[in-house]
Write a structure and sequence with these properties.
Elements lengths: L2 H18 L6 H7 L3 H21 L7 H8 L3 H28 L1 H15 L1 H7 L5 H17 L11 H11 L10 H7 L3 H10 L2 H28 L1 H15 L20 H43 L1
Length: 311
């Protein structure tokens, strides 16, 4: 794989890491926009299967055959650069975005609103046309559910290890589910600030518990999502589209600490400008990804043609 492609995947991973630190934006949304979502889910599913086979086959003396078969199907050329990019993206976002969200909440939400709104077009276009009635209903129900979820008042939970474990298991599902923000779920239960603080302070005890919860959550959820994308792709994408639309509520710039929505007020022009910047950034990302896919398809066609032409 070309160095440029590896660098590009590393930057995609960094963008996913940044998104995971922002309440209201899902890392799955960025993965969807940048065109790596389905390969990432498939790879995660194979890793989960490999771990399961290793745990069941090796103790029984059946060897590593099934485990190795699953690992060979992982898109390592994609997964490794993504993971390398995600960590610095997450750490940088944890350091820089928290003061922005505190000092300029309306402005930052305006920017993120533009980012996510433009992202909705990606799963909608992936469903294709024409939309069936049941898919439209699924989109509407998912939008209503996400809208209600993002309107829940913030609670405060004691960061007990078991609570952190369960919260991490639930929140990590947002990493693979566009429209559901893991950071926002943590914010809702009052564990966002303790988690960001632990990340910034390198509290490895807290982070180890959180990471364990993430592994449990991914193990339980990712295979189910992989099956949905393989067996019910259109319906799954319709639900994702609805979840993205409903989650926009969390990013409305003018809202109270209790998440009550208000009409546009102060700083309207700069917030609208940032909103348009967000739309432009995602639009540019989508166009660049589609051009990359077209070039890749052309290269495959040319490579397939050349041997035949020589013969």
């Amino acid at each position: 794989m070309a160095l440029g492609q590896r660098v590009g995947d590393g930057l995609r991973g960094a963008a996913i890491g940044v998104a995971e630190a922002v309440p209201g934006i899902s890392g799955g949304t960025i993965a969807l926009v940048t065109g790596v979502y389905e390969r990432l889910i498939a790879s995660a599913g194979h890793v989960v299967s490999a771990a399961r086979y290793a745990a069941s086959d090796v103790p029984r003396g059946r060897g590593w055959t099934r485990t190795q078969h699953q690992l060979r199907q992982v898109h390592w050329d994609l997964v490794v650069p993504l993971l390398i990019g995600m960590l610095p993206g997450l750490l940088i976002a944890a350091k820089t975005l928290e003061p922005l969200l505190t000092g300029y909440p309306e402005h930052t939400r305006g920017l993120f609103l533009g980012l996510v709104l433009a992202s909705v077009l990606v799963p909608i276009s992936m469903v294709g046309a024409p939309w069936r009635r049941v898919e439209i209903v699924a989109l509407a129900l998912a939008a209503v559910a996400a809208f209600a979820l993002t309107g829940l008042p913030q609670a405060t939970l004691d960061p007990h290890p078991m609570i952190v474990l369960v919260a991490a298991a639930v929140a990590v599902c947002a990493l693979v589910m566009p429209g559901v923000s893991g950071s926002f779920l943590l914010l809702t239960v009052g564990l966002y600030e303790p988690t960001i603080t632990a990340l910034n302070d390198r509290d490895f005890g807290y982070l180890a518990i959180f990471a364990t919860g993430m592994v449990i959550g991914l193990s339980l959820f990712v295979k189910f999502l992989q099956w949905l994308l393989e067996q019910h792709r259109r319906m799954t994408l319709a639900v994702m589209s609805g979840a993205l639309l409903g989650s926009l509520r969390a990013l409305w710039p003018w809202q109270s600490e209790e998440r009550d929505l208000h009409a546009p007020g102060d700083n309207l022009l700069p917030i609208v400008a940032l909103f348009l910047v967000g739309v432009a950034v995602v639009t540019a990302m989508v166009i660049a990804e589609r051009r990359r896919l077209r070039r890749a398809a052309q290269d495959v066609t040319e490579q397939a043609y050349e041997p035949t032409h020589v013969r």
